[in-house]
Input
Amino acid sequence: GQSLEQPSEVTAVEGAIVQINCTYQTSGFYGLSWYQQHDGGAPTFLSYNALDGLEETGRFSSFLSRSDSYGYLLLQELQMKDSASYFCAVRDQTDKLIFGTGTRLQVFP
Amino acid sequence: DVKVTQSSRYLVKRTGEKVFLECVQDMDHENMFWYRQDPGLGLRLIYFSYDVKMKEKGDIPEGYSVSREKKERFSLILESASTNQTSMYLCASSPLEDNEQFFGPGTRLTVL
Output
């Protein structure tokens, strides 16, 4: 079967750094994406990794290790507005996304 | 600004009714997708389409059908709604072979 595992919940304080891990087991792999979803909102794209290594976009970075079937999203200088759910998703060869069950991040003052 | 719109934010229907959920995108994207989102289960793909009049089953197509008569519009149809189809339904679109999917605001469907 196909599965993506990520922690269900993570908590942190403002200004801290948090890492959300994602391990995957899928029949095809073309890349790992991360999406953010605020309560009541639509998922929005954060990042995509097709190759091993770290991709940085402002306060957010995403890492991929294809040999370990593992990736993570790193959020730095946390702000209250970062409180949201974060989903990893594997893109397969047909452009489909297979989503993880999501990690709810709560940022406290 | 890219935009995916869905016909309703909230919808209440009765068991056995036929339900149409509409999705329109203005970005000329080839790919369109329908997901349902349930607590603890993430987003699960129902159907997707690469082009007009083309459709492919996703992971949970049972009880659903779709229609794509125009490139910008992708409809999800519940032929006979059941209570276990109460969920948040999200539509998304993307260019062909592109990494980013753009999501609509979602339709929260309640089937009584």
About this structure: Chain A has a mean pLDDT of 93.
